[in-house]
Amino acid sequence: MGRTLAEKVWEDHVVRRAEGEPDLLYIDLHLLHEVTSPQAFDGLRLSGRTVRRTDLTIATEDHNTPTLDIDKPIADPVSRTQLETLRKNCAEFGVRLHPLGDVEQGVVHVVGPQLGLTQPGTTVVCGDSHTSTHGAFGALAFGIGTSQVEHVLATQTLPLAPFRTMAITVEGELPDGVTAKDLILAVISRIGTGGGQGYVIEYRGSAIRNLSMEARMTVCNMSIEAGARAGMIAPDETTFEYLKGRPHAPSGDDWDAAVEYWKTLATDEDAVFDHEVYIDASALSPFVTWGTNPGQGAPLSASVPDPASFDDESDRHAAEKALEYMGLTAGQPLRDIAVDTVFVGSCTNGRIEDLRSAASILDGRRVAEGLRMLVVPGSVRVALQAIEEGLDKVFTAAGAEWRHAGCSMCLGMNPDQLAPGERSASTSNRNFEGRQGKGGRTHLVSPQVAAATAVLGHLASPADLDARTPVEA
Amino acid sequence: MEAFTTHTGRAVPLRRSNVDTDQIIPAHWLKKVTRNGFEDGLFEAWRKDPSFVLNHPEREGATVLVAGPDFGTGSSREHAVWALQNYGFKAVISSRFADIFRGNSLKNGLLTVILPQETVERLWKLVEADPAAEITVDLVGRQVRAEGVTAEFELNENARWRLLEGLDDISLTLQNEDAVSAYEAGRPSFKPRTLQG
Ligand code: SF4
């Protein structure tokens, strides 16, 4: 019987297999950041161990870093301690670090791919659930806990329990104005936040093949929001094209050997998935969340659902609680929801294409009166590219704030937070209660919807703009 | 990880059920960047009450916690185990543990022993009547012994062996060093490296 992409990558990394024990897998790339690594390094120190492969390990600072005044000392003592600890640990154990202020600094899941470190057929881990992002390259990439971080630091391997395979096949063409973000939000609302539990999802079909690498990363990024262990997309010419010439991509003979190997990774025709889901791309439309988990979403054209309409008792209860927290009433058209803040950024939608698409909508327009819009590039490299293309000027001319790279308002760990009761349209990945700041209310959206929402002051898609607000001459 | 064979020590009777990890170690302690120094956070909220059992002078230096059912529910934070260990506990006895907490405890060398609630009751009575009474937790013989109490307990063979040998996940993997090195020797040269040269 044929094998799936995920099974091939897994098999190629088995260091040891023994009856009744989990497989011991080799880890090709270990990404670190300041939040989940300190106890792991401390554990190494306590047991007198070292980092086995510093050449397969890289660290960056992202979660706690401010996006303003980055040359000033960090005000919050806890954030400062976490960053200083990472710096000390990396120096002591010989790990490459890109600290705040460095040209390669940024959100860990933006940094890996842009350096060309994330490659097809590799195993990638990080003490962060959104490590699934890297699956866009055909890597088996997943988030791990702090004990596992220590395990990988010390041994470059991990004992792992087997997974099941799920195929999500998206055929057809995405309509105009419908993006990878809308697609993945629709997938999660379809299968639910627990629908992927225990599975590695492979996204396939013509609509997936037609996505750019950046859009594929957006899709894989949110696999974890469906509860999946990982999300993957088979590498193809788009992948190779993206990688070629990147600082850490193979070159010369190595490149040829690598591409030859990468081409063997696609799921075999006769492989069987444990579960399959089919989605018609042409039926999708801009999608937004109305609740407090990423599965509570609906097309922008719909209304806030009535909790009573859910068959499942726990769904009904969750919807009731969500509406209460979100301050919404059943039946209210989603387009009528006014927001205070718009956030464009994060490892879901903080890459250059995302900024380009938001900028193209804001160009010549203004952010609505009284609305705050934050544009936060996913990395310093993304920021520099955007500046070169003049995107920062477009944002600031429209009245948005152009910030320094980092996780920023994706989660309330740095100064960028929502105030209690404040409502945002956010291109990030989690709309949990308090995720963007205590009492903050989050609607997950695509960069296009974020930009259109910023202009109109309520949830909107670019199509709404064309009808109502012509671009100023 | 320290090996656990048999341990004898005085006990703390914790007559509460459903002690969740937030009570064991409150969330604000999670900001710490080390694996030790959590002892002061252990049961922090309850310890503000001078009558809380851990504050009784005769319980100082106790190493066995005898807890109510469903100990360790709630978040998966490993800090809960570290806090108990940092405080000096070697073993926790309860009639039921939350799964993740139990997994974390065995991984870190804290022995969690499951005994019937009536045995827990007898241990409570014993150590409440006599704070100097000692409890022996014998992993070799899979037995808990105290004055008037001898109780067998179950533990999965693999977990038991690892505790007896003091093997954490990492040391177990390090025993397969040859396999890891052999795998590394066969890795293609096109695989990514974070350090050049
Ligand atoms: S951008 Fe958000 S989801 Fe991504 S790593 Fe940072 S905090 Fe996590």
Automatic annotation (TrEMBL), chain A:
InterPro entries named in the record: 3-IsopropMal_deHydase_lsu, Acnase/IPM_dHydase_lsu_aba_1/3, Acoase/IPM_deHydtase_lsu_aba, Aconitase_4Fe-4S_BS, Aconitase_4Fe-4S_dom, IPM_dehydratase_rel_enz, IPMI_cat
Chain residue ranges for the region called Disordered: 418-442
Keyword annotations: 4Fe-4S, Amino-acid biosynthesis, Branched-chain amino acid biosynthesis, Iron, Iron-sulfur, Leucine biosynthesis, Lyase, Metal-binding
Keyword Iron: yes
Cofactor note: Binds 1 [4Fe-4S] cluster per subunit.
Pfam families: Aconitase
Cofactor(s) this protein requires: [4Fe-4S] cluster
Documented EC number(s): 4.2.1.33
Catalysed reaction equations from the record: (2R,3S)-3-isopropylmalate = (2S)-2-isopropylmalate
Domain Aconitase/3-isopropylmalate dehydratase large subunit alpha/beta/alpha: residue ranges: 7-457
UniProt key word Phosphoprotein: no
Pathway where this protein functions: Amino-acid biosynthesis; L-leucine biosynthesis; L-leucine from 3-methyl-2-oxobutanoate: step 2/4
UniProt: [4Fe-4S] cluster binding residues: C347, C407, C410
GO biological process, alphabetically ordered: L-leucine biosynthetic process
Molecular function terms from GO: 3-isopropylmalate dehydratase activity; 4 iron, 4 sulfur cluster binding; metal ion binding
Enzyme superclass (EC): lyase
Known partners and oligomeric status: Heterodimer of LeuC and LeuD.
PANTHER family: 3-ISOPROPYLMALATE DEHYDRATASE, HOMOACONITASE, MITOCHONDRIAL-RELATED
Function of the molecule: Catalyzes the isomerization between 2-isopropylmalate and 3-isopropylmalate, via the formation of 2-isopropylmaleate.
The family this protein is said to belong to: Belongs to the aconitase/IPM isomerase family. LeuC type 1 subfamily.
Protein name: 3-isopropylmalate dehydratase large subunit
Organism encoding this protein: Wenjunlia tyrosinilytica
TrEMBL record, chain B:
UniProt cross-references to CDD domains, sorted A to Z: IPMI_Swivel
Matches recorded under SUPFAM superfamilies: LeuD/IlvD-like
A Pfam family recorded for this sequence: Aconitase_C
Reactions catalysed: (2R,3S)-3-isopropylmalate = (2S)-2-isopropylmalate
Pathway: Amino-acid biosynthesis; L-leucine biosynthesis; L-leucine from 3-methyl-2-oxobutanoate: step 2/4
Enzyme Commission numbers on file: 4.2.1.33
Oligomeric form and interacting partners: Heterodimer of LeuC and LeuD.
Protein purpose: Catalyzes the isomerization between 2-isopropylmalate and 3-isopropylmalate, via the formation of 2-isopropylmaleate.
Annotated family: Belongs to the LeuD family. LeuD type 1 subfamily.
Record's protein name: 3-isopropylmalate dehydratase small subunit
Source species of the chain: Wenjunlia tyrosinilytica
Gene that encodes the chain: leuD
